[in-house]
User: Fold TM2 domain-containing protein from Sulfoacidibacillus ferrooxidans.
Amino acid sequence: MYQQINSTVRVPKSMILAYILWFFLGSLGVHRFYLGRVKSGLAILLLTLLGSATMGIIIGYIFLGMVGIWLFIDLFLIPWMVTMPKSLMISSTVTMMHDHRLDNDIIDITPKDK
Assistant:
């Protein structure tokens, strides 16, 4: 009988390649696809397409402005996204939330008699 072992191998990502993708294809969200952030990559892609399609009526510039702000923020987030795997990011958030809940359970807020 064989035992199945589930394991995930994380391939290290290149920060240089992430920045190159950000610079040349950032408005399409390609750098986020490369870093494993598929949902946010799709959001950037959809905002860019929607903004390009609606530039004739002024609203398109709002969508493209949102993409520009997002890309500016990504300029500073890329090093963190490269070094912090998505699964570790989620598990550390859950751990922090769990620790915070435990800390609140320990505090006694009952009034003391004087």
In short: The chain has a mean pLDDT of 82. The two ends are 69 Å apart (CA to CA). Residues 15-84 form one domain.
